[in-house]
Write a structure and sequence with these properties.
Ammonium transporter fold, transmembrane, 471 residues, mainly alpha, globular, 2 domains, two-stranded antiparallel ribbon
Length: 471
């Protein structure tokens, strides 16, 4: 069983290939993929009303498949390939065997590994956008939205911030694993899309209970543990920075969850499970741009702030600003991702430790947190870093408001952007012809089963009255 001549043992393991790094990177990519399928699929499908369980989960499943095809056909090269403009790469296939088996621009492994690793990040970003429009966006409109937004928005953010040729990367923006490219982008884009799609039905906005809290926690748990690959894979190697990034991720997340929980108990007197999950998410998001760049004590401080500032914007400020009240952001992605992502980006510019920066960015003196710059009498370098972080935030916000608005306006010319009132009243059965929970037999509709049950109860009551009269 000898290998074909084109794939000899030497060629399958070239000198530049580090098998340990390659194994870790593929593992990290798979774990991040599991965050989406099945993690967020379960989370979305269980945190919504029963009538939206299938629609919400299906949006995630469709997105994952659609993004992968677009990614290998043109989007990966637009994000990490040859420069077309200063903010985006040239669209091209990432399917050629010779191209995929060559060494990637980062890490000691083939481009095929890099393509897959970056794909799962692109997929989860678009899935997070979906969280803002659950329960009323037309599925056909969403089918168009995914490839359009990936192409015109995500690739621009990824190339600008992460590509070695991107203008924000060259300027010195620090985004370790996606605080800007993924979370700030999805939070702003989701909020913008929610504005154009419009709110849910009034009764859904007033009361939108999860259909299965235990499943919701299972999805949230997959999301939390999956962040090991999310931030741990960012150094592109199985090195000490990856280890630190993983530990900092979980420290910040646990702290954020507990702070959010304590605030709920103190101000509302009840420990909220959904609130704890929100605190978990804000902690994960906040530490992402800083995971391998800060010390453990800084991760705790970031957790305290990520559990309190987004809590305040969501639970207090949101109820006082008319525009925030008007925009129906189903999963509150504006607070959990846009606010927490911006917070993490700014705190990265403050807490980033020079020695850790060198592990990730190389020997470049520009990268220094303001706290250390003040200590080392390099205040101008520290304030410059904060300024660059703020500039990165501004670029991502403007990009996603403009591009997402344009996409929504174009789509609604082609297909309805919003479901009809009847479809929103019925939910999954009207949109997909399917329902999540089959509580009846032999294909009998739930409503019919309930009506038959009611008639049975009325019949029993009638017979009881008749028996009483006889006696």
């Amino acid at each position: 069983n000898s290998l074909p001549t084109a794939y000899t043992t030497t060629e399958s393991s070239p000198e530049w290939l580090n098998k340990g790094d390659n194994s870790w990177q593929l593992t990290a990519a798979t774990v991040v993929g599991l965050q989406t399928i099945p993690g967020i699929l379960i989370l979305y499908g269980s945190i919504v009303k029963k009538k939206w369980a299938i629609n919400s989960s299906f949006m995630v499943l469709y997105t994952f498949a659609c993004v992968l095809l677009c990614w290998v056909c043109w989007a990966f090269q637009m994000s990490f390939g040859q420069q077309m403009f200063f903010f985006v790469g040239r669209p091209h296939f990432a399917l050629d065997q010779k191209y995929l088996l060559g060494q990637g621009f980062a890490g000691l492994y083939p481009r095929a590994t890099l393509v897959f690793f970056q794909f799962v990040f692109a997929a989860i970003t678009v899935v997070l956008v979906a969280g803002a429009v659950l329960g009323r966006m037309s599925f056909k409109a969403w089918m168009l939205f995914v490839p359009m937004w990936l192409t015109v928005s995500y690739t621009v953010g990824a190339f600008s911030v992460w590509s070695p040729k991107g203008f924000l990367f060259e300027a010195g923006v620090m985004d370790f694993a996606g605080g800007f490219v993924i979370h700030l982008s999805s939070g702003v884009a989701g909020f913008t899309a929610a504005y154009w799609v419009g709110p849910r039905e009034s009764k859904d906005r007033e009361r939108f209970p999860p259909n299965n809290i235990l499943l919701m926690l299972a999805g949230a748990g997959l999301l939390w543990m999956g962040w090991t690959g999310f931030n741990g894979g960012a150094p592109y190697a199985a090195n000490i920075d990856a280890s630190l990034a993983i530990l900092n991720t979980h420290i910040c997340t646990a702290t954020s969850l507990l702070v959010w929980l304590f605030l709920d108990v103190f101000f509302f007197e009840k420990p909220s499970v959904i609130g704890a999950v929100q605190g978990m998410i804000t902690g994960l998001v906040c530490i992402t741009p800083a995971a391998g760049l800060v010390q453990g004590w800084a991760a705790i401080i970031m957790g305290i702030l990520s559990g309190s500032i987004p809590w305040y914007t969501m639970m207090v400020l949101h109820r006082k600003i008319k525009f925030l009240i008007y925009v129906d952001d189903t999963m509150a992605v504006f607070h959990t991702h846009a606010v927490a992502g911006s917070l993490g980006g700014i705190l990265t510019g403050f807490f980033a430790e020079p020695r850790l920066n060198r592990l990730f960015f190389g020997d470049d003196p520009r990268y220094i947190g303001l706290a250390y710059a003040l200590k080392d009498n390099r205040s101008m370098a520290g304030f410059r870093q904060i300024g660059i972080q703020l500039a990165g935030i501004a670029f991502i916000v403007i990009l996603n408001v403009v591009v997402t608005s344009a996409i929504c306006l174009i789509i609604r010319v082609i297909v309805p952007l919003r479901l009809t009132d009847e479809e929103m009243e019925i939910g999954d059965d009207a949109v997909h012809g399917e329902e999540a929970y089959a509580l009846w037999e032999d294909g009998e509709k739930f409503e019919i089963a309930q009506r038959n049950k009611m008639f049975d109860v009325q019949d029993i009551e009638s017979r009881s009255v008749q028996m009483t009269e006889r006696f």
